[in-house]
Structure formats: C-alpha cells, structure tokens
Queue: 2 jobs
Job 1
Amino acid sequence: MKTGVIALAHGSKANGGNDGLFKIVEMLENMGKWAIVRPGFLQFAQPTFTQSIKNIVEEGAQRVVILPLLLFAGNHVQRDIPIEIEAVRQKYPHVEFLYASNLGADERIAYIAADRIDEAIKMWNAECGMRSEKTPTNSEIESPQAILKESFRIIDRLVNLSNFDEPYRQIVRRVIHASGDPEYARSLIIHPHAVDAGVSAIRTGKRIVTDVNMVKAGINNKAIERFGGSIVCRIADAETRANANASGKTRALTAIQRSIEEMAGGIVAIGNAPTALFEIVNLVNEGKANPALIIGVPVGFVGAAEAKEALRGVSTPYITNIGRKGGSAIAVAITNALIEFAKKS
C-alpha cells in the first residue's frame, strides 16, 4: 500500500514564516520511510489542506497520514482538522485516512526546549564577553592531559552542568567526553546512592562484571587490582557459548547468568546488550543476584530503552540513561569515573 504523509502546519502571513514546514517535510522525505511527504497549511499559506490532499491522492497514495505539527491540542487539533478529514473521506472513499497525534507534551520536545535555553545563555555569555577564548597550540593538543583538559573546558562551555552536584557532575562530563554527545547531560539518570555504592564496592575489592569484553578492556584494570578487585566477563567462554546455543538466548545474557556469584556486592556494567540488562534486572527482582550497583547503558533499537526503563524500577542503586543511546564507551566512562572517586576518597 502506497503511503503518503501530509505534514500540516497553521500557516503564517509573515515573509519566510512558513519555511520551517518545508524543511521538516524535506527531512521526513529523506528518511525514506514513506512514499510521499507533502506540506499543508490550515490558513494564510499555500498549499491548503484540501489542495495537499488532492495532490497526494493524484500521486497515487492509497493511505494518507495527516500529521498535525501543532504543539498542543487546541481547536484546530480537536475540531477543525477532524472536520476536514471527514470531508476528504467522503470525497475519496477509496483512500484510507489516518489522523496522527499532535506533537504534545513529549519529553523530546523538552530536550529541544532545553537546547534553545542553553543556546540563548551561551549567546548572552558570548556577547557579554564572559568567556575569553583561547585557541590551543599544537603542543597543547598533542599532550593527553592537555587534550583532556581542553575537552572538559569545551564541554563546560557547551553544557550547563551547574545543576549537578559533585561527583555527579564528573560522571556526566566524562560521559559527554566519551560520546561527544551533550544530550547525556539531560538523559543520564544517577540513583541517589549510586556513587557511594560504586565507590564502596571498588574500595573493598569487589568484582566488576561486564556484558562484553569491550567494556572490560576499557576499564582501568590496574586500579581495580590495586584495590584487590578484578573484572569478569564470560561472554567468550566455551561454556557460555554452549549454554547460549542450547538455550537459544544471547551469549551476553548467558554470561550474566553464569556470573551471579562474582557480582555479589560488586558492580555490573552493561554497555552493549539489552538482553543482559533485562537479565540482571530479573535476577535482582527474583532475589537471585545482589550487586551493589548496576550500570545499565546498552545501545540499540531493540530493547535498549525498555531495559533501561526496567532498571529504573529496581531497588538496587543504578546509573542509566533514557532512550536508545548508550554503548560500551559510556559504561566504561561511568565505571572509570567511579574508580577516580575511589582513588581520592
């Protein structure tokens, strides 16, 4: 079935006031998910809603999704657009018309709003000369410590971390440094007891269990060994492979099942596999595992966001983030930040 989309905006008389809709339509087209994407306006601009419907039907759309790019559900969303849709249903009975929700009070909108607020503050800072910019020399960007220092300076300029108490601020800064993504300043969630639990586990020589070897390889093993601990990852073990093949489950999940004893009182760091995070959540909820801290930041389109949401429901302290983003580098950055705290405490 050929699907078309009408991105519907209010419309403006102002010169250039409607350009944003055409840009959004282009972005939606570039996603390649729908056969046709066209703009439409409720008033003050062309093409109108009815014109857009006529055009998209003539282009062969058999199913048309009407997407109201309106923030809140006012009269247009609740009354005017449904009336228009009913009229075109009568006119084109052979076409299926679907009415999508308006943008609404969505957390992703809040992220965009936060970006705009930060942009305004940074612009004000720049105009008032509150920051003296200094271009680093070649020698400064060749030294590892200088690179780290300059990276943190750039992060502090880009992101307002003043709302985070220490040591949370250091964790967020290291995650942004590892990912190059300032959004973690808003999506990272740190349980109130997470830092204390993690630092205590490290200082008392408890083990760190990881889902994949990439996480294990990135953690500061020398520091962990100095505290009397070790890092455990059983994903590549022959027994793990055999058990995973027999059960039809992932090796990462199976490795977690085989590491229950090692994680007692220690840290579980999941940076890759949502299945591993789901499993540790289940084990904790069933009383079969008792880690001091769970770092759960798997990445992916299948199960990653859901596993993190499940993690936020356990009683064990945790560090996680909202959404699909994450990865081994994020789990490593969080764990190494805790190791630094342990060294200094």
Job 2
Amino acid sequence: MYPYVSFFGKPYSSYGVFAIIGLAAAVLYSFIVHKITKDKKDFFDRVIYIVYCGAAGGICAAILYQLTNIKGWIKALPFLFSDFDKFRSYLSFGIVFYGGMFGIFIGFMIYSRFFKEDTREWLRTSVPGVPLFHAFGRMGCAVGGCCYGIPKLSSGSYNYETGLFDLDGGPFVHGACIYNARIGHYCIPIQLIESCGLILIVIILILYLRFGKDKKAYYRPMGLYFVMYGVLRFITEFWRGDLIRGIWGPFSTSQYISMIVIPIGIYCLVCPTEKSIFEKWYNGALYKKDKETDKDIYKEKDK
C-alpha cells in the first residue's frame, strides 16, 4: 500500500493519481463513442458536458460525505467559537461516491438547461464512463488504504515519522487479504473486488448499448447501471471495515442509499421514455409553452 507517490521529488496522493487516470479513461471512452456514433456536435462541447457533470458530482459527493458525518458535526459545533482546533478535530473531509453519482446526472440537467442542448444521446452513451472512472478510483482506494475491508490480522509497528504501520519484512499478501499500512492490519481487498465488479458493469453496459434495439430509450442504460451498481454496493458493504462511512442499525449509509437507487433503476428500465419523470424534467429545461396554442416549442439556443 502506497498512500503517496512521488513525481519530480514531490509527494502526491495515490488516490488522486488513480482518479486522474480514471478521468482520462472516461474522456477517452467518450472520444471513441463520439467517433463511432459520428456525432455531428463538436467533441469540445462533450468535454464541457463532462466538466459540468464532474463538477456537480464532486460537489454532491463532498456534501453527502458531510451528511454521513453528522455525528461529528454535532460534537464539533459547541467548540466552533471557543476552541477551533478542537472543532476541526471532530471533522473529516472526503467524498461518498453515491453523492457523486447523483451529482453527475444533476450536472446533466444543469448543462441541458444552461446551453439548451439536447444531450439525451450523450447521457445514453456516456453512462459506461461513470463506472469506468469509478473502477480506477477504487484501485486508488486499495493503493491509498482507504475504504478498506474487514481487518483480519494485525501486523507491523507504528512509524511516528510517516504516521503509518511498517510491515517489518512480512508479506504484503496474507491468504486472501492485503496489508493496510494505515491501520496495521491485513484486510479483505474489498476495493479491488468492487473494482472488478465495476469493470464487469462497464462491459455489460457497452454490450447493451451495442446490441440494444431501442436507441431512443435514453434512460435505460442509466437504469441498468443503477440496478447493477446498487446490488454490487449493497453486497460489498457487508465486507467493509471502515466505520467512517456511517453505520445506522444493521446497514451502512450506502446500503440504505442502494435501497433507493435500485428501485429508481428498475423504474428507468421498465418505464417508456415518453412517460418517464426524467423526460418531463428534461423537457422542462428544453421546452417552453406557446401562450396561444399551449404547445411545446423547442428552444434551440433561444432562437
């Protein structure tokens, strides 16, 4: 496990490096799709679309993380004005992917409303890019030591200089577990297990896009992704060992969210596009009512 990697003598977060690689892979996928589908729109517009979705995803992921840490905020607030260092000690900063996943599709709506562009085909074909990015992110989690699985065996000694546990010559892999220097334990490699599941989801989604007959079912790839990832995440959470993600009763925060995501996905799969509530929201961004005929008029660049 290497929480940091060095480039030109400077340390960088391993997770950040893998996230950048994942983003590059998602953009490359979008470029390939752009060429294969012979999209008449400029690819730079698609890149801007990705930026909007990514920014919204990052913001929502950070917000959801703070919501999962509500207990920390309750403990911290009394010290906000009296002891700011203690106030900060109760808080932590990070991201929760489910927040990012919802944020990406919020970004899709924001982009459509701001630019008055029909981007439903982009939404349909770009869905595999989300789990592709996420798969590399989970690899970064495994290398960085966060989001780890259930600890099975302790080993190593604490290094006060690095703040990590040294392995002291022991094997990096023990049985089916990998060593986590952040906590000094061999843990179930749940990050890599989820990463493999995400790659499988990417393959299934690409096959669905390639061989699916209804090309106007814009929200079905999203629904298929929601169902598959919801099931994957619900199962893998049972083998997570980090408590920071939030445990409420028998399930984690992400498992409760999975219970919401899966029905939404099923709805997207079975509901015809023209009757979908997402289509109605989308039309609200692109269309306006004619005052005399009460019919929808497409607002193309406000012409």
